[in-house]
Amino acid sequence: MASPDKKTKKKWKNQTLIASLEFALTGIFTAFKEERNMKKHILSALLVSLAGIFFQLSAIEWLLLLLSIFLVISFEVLNSAIENVVDLASDYHFSMLAKNAKDMAAGAVLLVSFYAVITGLVIFVPKIWNLIFD
Fold first, then answer.
1. With bands split at pLDDT 50, 70 and 90, how would you rate the model's confidence at 7?
2. Which of 36, 86, 99, 119 has the least CB density, counted as fewest CB within 10 Å?
3. What share of the chain in percent tops pLDDT 70?
4. pLDDT in tens, 94-117
5. Residue 91 annotated as binding?
6. Helices 36-54 and 96-133: crossing angle, nearest 10°?
């Protein structure tokens, strides 16, 4: 007979690929629903995608743009997960370690956002320049 711990673990273990996908999609939708910054990231992604269509980006430019988009969104999801775990572990009481963990996770989002901005500038500034001055 299995111990209670093993039964509990099995209940939370993904039994199928479909179950894994459902949990992952639930996580993404939860982040979109509950995180203010996620809405801003999605809006930015839509706007730069429309700009990419307008400027007829090359395959390489699309790959770099999509890499930027997915990195920022992925890091935001991870940041949100870290914040939730820290809040749970600290029971919402102030702790310098909890603050540091949350600040570092937010810093990771900021760093990858800088990469996305630089990528956008490298791709779009020459195209906008040519549109205006050619």
1. low
2. 36
3. 90
4. 999 999 999 999 999 999 999 999
5. no
6. 20
CB 113 within 8 A of CB 72: yes
Tokens coding 102: 């949350």
Structure token pair of residue 134: 């050619």
76 labeled part of a ligand binding site: yes
Q: Could you read off the pLDDT of 73-85 as tens digits, one per residue?
A: 999 999 999 999 9
The answer to whether 76 is a known catalytic residue is yes
80, 31 in Cβ contact below 8 A? yes
How many whole angstroms separate alpha carbon 41 and alpha carbon 60? 22
34 is in an annotated binding site: no
Q: Is 83 annotated as a binding residue?
A: yes
pTM of the model: 0.83
**Structural element, H or E, at residue 128:** helix 96-133
Phi and psi dihedrals of 124, rounded to 5?
Answer: -95, -30
d(CA 124, CA 102): 33
Q: What angle do CA 14, 19, 84 make, to 5 degrees?
A: 70
- Candidates 22, 34, 61, 76; catalytic one: 76
